[in-house]
Amino acid sequence: MNAIRATLAISWKELLVTFRDRGLLAILFVLPLVFGTLFSLSQQGALDVATGVTPITVRVFVVNDDEGVYGQQVVDALKQMAMLDIEQLDSAGEADRRVGNGDRAAAILIPAGFSAGIDAYQPQQVRVVVDPAQGSIADVVAGLANYAVSPVSIQGELLQGTRTFLDQVGLLEDAPPETIQAIEAQTVGAIMAQLQAMQSDPPISVVPEGTGTDPQPINLLDSFMPAFAVMFAFFLTGHIGQVLHRERDEGTLRRLLASPLSRAAIIAGPMIAYVIIVVLQVVFLFGVSAGLFGMDIGDSLLGLLAVSVALGLTVATLGLLLGVVTRTGRQADTLGTLIAFILPFISGIFPMNGTEPAYLAGGPMATIARFIPHMHAAEGYRLVMTSEGTIETVMVQVVVLLGFAVIFFALASRRLRSWGRA
After folding, report:
1. Do 190 and 245 lie in a common domain?
2. How many domains does the chain divide into?
3. Fewer CB within a 10 Å sphere, N or C end of the chain?
4. Tens of pLDDT along 36-60?
5. CA torsion sign, 129 to 130 to 135 to 140?
């Protein structure tokens, strides 16, 4: 019982440390939601036309009282949505009156000071006014407005994370404010430019073919969200390695290894915490996607849980391995970021020329993907969500993921004791 209590106490400590890191939480929970919805919804209109499905159009007013760049970014994002018919007005009062008269279904109102509030990391609110006679449309418009605001929201999170990082490392402690602001803007701008480039040049094309049957609607979020969930779960690996280095440098790990606690409890505690974080991440991403955008999560919640737990163990053990094979926390974080960005594309978990992941097309990519854990996690989710697989086929992917976890753990544990005392 003492060992169990000690393990759970370590797990609780790791959870508290992780949930205090706003930048990490944004990467784990917000970024995959933004990327998944950007990729899928930006292509949904084209896919609906190509497959012969007539998209629903909602007529709305938009009022932008903000004088900064973020308000205009939200307006531009709304105008790019094929499902919205936008008319821009000059005042919230006029929009409210005309919605009340039934001229349009809703109005999206961007307040004054919206951009300044984002830059200052202060909560902002974009209001949605809906015609009472069309109350059922409120959730749809609110969901689309949230989607349009998401890139701006994550830009604010990135800006705050950049500021916090620069403050912590103290690299620009003596630099003038203008230099600090320029570096912050350049860093965040580079990330957002990459996001916009990926959105404007999406990796998916659709070629319609006659089938002689009525067209069925296809939700691209079913393909993109699981891939992004897997991709961003692996961002935890760099964080885990960085935390391990910090605990060694501060002497925390040395004291734990010298304590009466077993090595199993010392290792199992953080692993349980990170498995919980991955499961929560999947629950959040799939829950929001299913609730707001109708993503099909299948009929087996147990199957989703099994894949998520196996994915969490793989992430936790790989992070542990990164920690003990790197020299500094910065190296562990950098290597973890490279793994999170590069391996998803090598493993082919994103759809490239259709709605199915690229690894299903066969060829060299499919062969390489078998040796990458990302592919097996994505395939496990795909089997559960599409109901194509039986519990046996899903468990194959779970067992493979657990095999990766065992290998990573075995490699890491051989060095952990001597590494922690170094």
Report:
1. no
2. 2
3. N
4. 877 776 555 544 544 444 455 778 9
5. negative
